[in-house]
Design a protein that fits this description.
The chain has 211 residues and is mainly alpha-helical. A hairpin with a 2-residue loop joins strand 1 and strand 2. The longest helix is centred in the N-terminal third of the chain and has 47 residues. The protein has a domain of 89 residues: Cytochrome b5-like heme/steroid binding domain (Flavocytochrome B2, Chain A, domain 1). It is built from seven helices and three strands; from the N terminus they run αααββαααβα. The two termini are 59 Å apart. It is a single-pass membrane protein. This is Membrane-associated progesterone receptor component 1. InterPro entries: Cyt_B5-like_heme/steroid-bd, Cyt_B5-like_heme/steroid_sf, MAPR/NEUFC/NENF-like.
């Protein structure tokens, strides 16, 4: 490729006629071929990088940006990182309210009678988060009615008996989403209901299912 270019250069300066023009044409053809060959490799590399970035972006969207399911922001250490996994137990409403993120780093909430540890989503459920109103509370009614007002949450046990079929289906769908994303740590107790005794084996089994 180098000698072709030199021939083209010499021919052009010394003899602008036939042989020089042919040499010049050959040089341009060689240069074009080199450009196409190099360009093809470059395009392949760009395509491979794009595929890798697309895969990484999809994972990020799935696990990092799912609204209610997202964790703490980039560069910030999540409070969940310094906490051990909570042993399975049942909670009364009063006990649940102790885990609102203001008295302890751990944040719990209940959905459809199930209590979930949402500490790794503290950016959303912490005191300053957009869904902080649900922390330490039964979030079922608020999620079912898409209401973030305190009026949507009852201070006493909420049996949800006044919700319609569509709203109850929404509650069940939210429950499934929380099961996929967060640790299930126990039941929300009805008034007068006794807590269950969970063995270490049951606790480990439930955590392994979630992992």
């Amino acid at each position: 490729l180098g000698s072709g270019s030199e021939s083209s250069s010499d021919g052009s300066s010394e003899s602008p006629g036939g042989a020089g023009a042919a040499a010049e044409g050959g040089g341009w053809a060689a240069a074009a071929l080199a450009l196409l060959t190099g360009g093809g490799e470059m395009l392949l590399n760009v395509a491979l990088v794009a595929l890798v970035l697309l895969g990484a972006y999809r994972l990020w969207v799935r696990w990092g940006r799912r609204g209610l399911g997202a964790g703490a922001g980039a560069g910030e250490e999540s409070p969940a990182a310094s906490l051990s996994r909570m042993k399975k137990r049942d909670f009364s409403l009063e006990q649940l309210r102790q885990y609102d993120g203001s008295r302890t780093p751990r944040i719990l909430l209940a959905v459809n009678g199930k209590v979930f540890d949402v500490t790794k989503g503290s950016k959303f459920y912490g005191p300053a988060g957009p869904y902080g109103i649900f922390a330490g509370r039964d979030a079922s009614r608020g999620l079912a009615t898409f209401c973030l007002d305190k009026d949507a949450l009852k201070d006493e046990y909420d049996d949800l008996s006044d919700l319609n079929a569509v709203q109850m289906e929404s509650v069940r769908e939210w429950e499934m989403q929380f099961k996929e994303k967060y640790d299930y740590v126990g039941r929300l107790l009805k008034p007068g209901e006794e807590p269950s005794e969970y063995t270490d084996e049951e606790d480990t089994k439930d955590h392994n299912k979630q992992d």
